[in-house]
Design a protein that fits this description.
six-stranded parallel beta sheet, globular, 51% helix, alpha/beta, 651 residues, 10% strand, binds iron/sulfur cluster, single chain
Amino acid sequence: MLEELLIMELKKRSSDKAAQEMIERMADAGQQNAWDRLDAQLPQCGFGKQGVCCRICTMGPCRISKKAPLGVCGANADTIVARNFLRAIAAGTSAHSDHARAVAEVFLATARGEAPDYQFKDTVKLKRIAAELGVETEDRPVNEIAAKIGEIALGEFGKAEGTQLMARRAPKPRQEIWKKFDITPRAVDREVVEALHRTTMGVDQDYKSIIMHASRTALADGWGGSMLATELQDILFGTPYPGRGEVNLGVLKEDEVNIIVHGHEPILSEMIVAAASNKELLAEAKKVGAKGINVAGICCTANELLMRHGIPIAGNFLSQELAIATGAIELMAVDVQCVMQGLAEVAKCFHTKLITTSDKAKLTGVEHIAMEPKTALNTAKELVKMAIGNYKNRGRVTIPTEKQSAVVGFSHESINYILGGRFRASYRPLNDNIINGRIRGIAAIVGCTNPKVPQDFTHTTLAEQLIKRDVLVVTTGCATIACSKRGLTNPKEALELAGPGLREVCEAVGMPPVLTCGSCVDNSRLLVACTEIVREGGLGEDISEIPVVGACLESITEKAIAIGQYFVASGVLIIFGRELLPVSGSENVSNYLFGGIEKDFGGRWAVESDPFKAAEIMLAHIEGKRDALGINKVRERKLYDMADRRALTVE
Ligand code: XCC
Ligand code: SF4
């Protein structure tokens, strides 16, 4: 079944109708997109795919083959594959954590009154994090507390001594495992620097030792940089609570000025959203004949905005060029990460103004307007004005009609609340429903969209297969956008697809069977949620014992590998697309990552490109964990009784 389906979908390049329409339009106009450039690259380098090329020193580059199994320095495939793996994780960790640092800087500037356009929106969380970090809160003004938190947070990146403070959140047995292997993450910068040092020529040349540091570096991301980014963003911009939003290219408006924000840091996009509702600017838009100003997001910035403000999402990673090809985008403002250089070319074919805003991320030939914390709102207004001024330059506009309504905003806090209700917010109902078997377990579907896979195909197929079998699905990143485009985060439609147990629970609490949990740094929310499930009791003492599993079959970035590894080192099974984890060139590394590492950490990697087969692996894993917990036996004996039913209803 899969093969036919896959070939069909591959021909269309995307399983999203709106994307298909725009892909066709671009082809008709002779414009190139990521799929065309992939075709031009084929066949891609087999050494690279397997992770066996090394260009770390100039005795090389060396490529490992049967004929030449050793690099000039004597390094073998195990060493080279492991080194490349660690370097990818160091880069991914850097990306998430440098994003976090930028947020921490704005956070501190806000506390010190140096960023007048930002305010602390969630002061409840501010106090909670203060308590966690040992910051005195009594009789202290918010700004003073925040300044202390900001200083501590900034310290997490470069402090000389000690380990990541957020890692203390993990279940105790997990922390013991990290201690035993001496991989409790220290300062983020330190782990990354050490990763680069270890992988230079002639340093760490034992694959297991290299992979051990890969875990430590990745943990500095998940339980460090990413978690800090999430928490500080929540305090600054508000913790997400469930609300509605719309997703796909159909959110663009024919008769309004369309502005796309694309990238990752909400520091920019939050201000553009604020500027777009400015009365004077709205009046200006009317003057040029537009009915209003429409802001929509792409990639993780989109997730941040939809979760917090209900701002619509135009698309995920592979839709960035397609959005411009609608001819309806007056301005696209980008910051950091996942911004294709190809955008510059596409933008030239249309009237779209492409603007870079982070001094860390410029594009040749593209106008740069730096976003500074001190003058953020003014800069945002300037960008909105540019967009308005550009409205008159529109040519032909083709906006696909597809859009879906989504219920979004499932932070760890809001899951707690929605499950337990206002008066007894807790994970108890979730744990109980996992124990009684209505929900078999939890699957995280995360990450990117890769032109090697039909866009969205594996994410949505996997999600459908899993909810059908009563697995609650949590999603982040571009996968969450894929699921929303498909209607899977819309309770009305998606519950029809859910198995009877999951459906009953979701209906009782009023949530969809696929939860959108935010951007990629928000995978840290899932670590916290897992920890809460453990703490709630009845499902084991550590994350590795609960029936939870993760997958990213369309991954592209180094960030995705870092995320995968921090989940593995936290005790979770993670599945990637077969050719999207470049370790196959070393049997030893593969055997360890796919098997041996489980003895050490309780989690491991697997590769499978077929979403139907991946679903089976995930289900088997979940049932295995349930068996080990002894909760499958309980289920057979127990019928639904009144107490069960009561537990399902929320006050
Ligand atoms: Fe990038 Fe975050 Fe991947 Fe999407 S999911 S392609 S990393 S935008 Ni993060
Ligand atoms: Fe070749 Fe070794 Fe240099 Fe890598 S470090 S390029 S394997 S000589």
